[in-house]
Amino acid sequence: MALPGGTCPSVGLGGYVQGGGFGALCRQHGLIVDHLEAVEVVVADSAGQARTVVASRSPSDPHHDLWWAHTGAGGGNFGVVTRYWFRSPEAVSDAPWDVLPRPPKTVLFASAEWPWESLSERDFATLVRNHGDWHATEDATDPTYESLYSALYLNQHAVGRITLSAQLDGSAPGARSRLEEYVAAIGSGVRTPCRITYTHMPWLRATQRDVENRGELTRSKSKGAYLRRPYAAAETELLFRYLSDPDYDGHTTVVLFSYGRKVNAVDPAATAVAQRDSVLKSYLGTYWTDPADDERHIRRLRELYRALYAETGGVPVSDARTDGSYINYPDVDLADPRWNTSGVPWNRLYFKGNYPRLQRVKAVWDPRNVFRHALSVRASD
Known about the structure:
Layout: H1 12-18, H2 26-29, E1 36-44, E2 50-56, H3 64-69, E3 80-86, E4 106-115, H4 121-137, E5 149-155, E6 161-169, H5 175-187, E7 195-202, H6 203-206, E8 219-227, H7 233-243, E9 253-258, E10 280-288, H8 294-308, H9 346-351, H10 355-365
C-alpha cells in the first residue's frame, strides 16, 4: 500500500500532511490529506499546560475540527503532531493491505530536454502552450493518463536547459506508447532538437529519488500559484524575458506541475485545502549559495512574481485564471503590502473561505497563541 505523498524527501511526512501536499500519485488517488483518518496532537491549553488530544475524521468526534485543521493549513499552527493514522474514505475492509491505495508495481519515467543555447522565444512559448493546453483539455474520464504525473521545468538560462519530467504506471497497458504520445504532444511544433530518455524502475525505488536536490544551492526563495487556466501568451512572454537573461547567474525555475483529476473530486470545504478545481500548480523559485547575494536574488524573484500577476495586485487572486497560492510554498511577501497590493489578505490567498473556520479552531485549541510564525493562523484579524 502507499500514501499519495510528494517527491521532495526533505519536506517529510509532517510537511506533506499539514501542508496539504501533492505528488506523483495525486491525480490518481487525491491529496495525502484525503486519506488522513486521525491525528494525535500535543496542544497548549488556556492555562499553558500541555496535553495530548486525538482528533479524527468522524463528524461525531468532538475534536473533529482539530482533525480538519490539520488537512492543509500548514505546520506550526495548533500544536505538535506526534502521530498520524491513515485510511482511504473508500476503504471497506480493516485489513492493512486494503485501507490505502496500492501503488504501481513499476514506474516508467520520461525526461525530455531542450537546450537553451538553441531555444527561441517561439519554441519556449510553444512548449508552455502545449503543456498548458494538454492539461486544460484532457479527458478526465479517460483512465489512460490517470497515473500521469509531470513537471515542466522552465529553468533559468544559466541552468542550460528546459526539462519535461513525466511518469506513468509502468504496468499499465501500452504505458510506453502512451507516455511517448504525451511527450510528443508537449514538444509538438518545437524546432529545437530534444533529447529524450526513458527509464523503468520499481515503484519503491522511484520513491527514493530526490528530484529537488539542489546540492550546494542551499539558499532559496519560493512562491506559488494554483492555475485554473494555463499561462497566457503575455505571461509566457514575460517568463521568457526573465528566464532567458544570460546576465543573471541565479538558478531561477518556474515549474508547472500536473494537477487535477482525483484532487478536484473533493469538496473545497472537506479539508483545509480549498483549491479543488485547478489543472496545474505553479512553483517559482530561485536558488543560490552566498548569503551576501540574498537581497539581489530575492528581489529578482519578487519582481518576476509581481509582474506576472500585475493585473491583480502582484499576487494570484482567485479569478477565472488563478486560485491563490499553496501554503507549502510559504511566502511572507503575500502579507507585505509592498508586494501584495491586491487588497486580498494573505490568508485568503492560501485558504480562501476556509480561513474563518481555521480561526475558530485556533481560538479553541491554541488560545495563548503558543504556536505562531509569520503565516500562522490567527484567532482574530
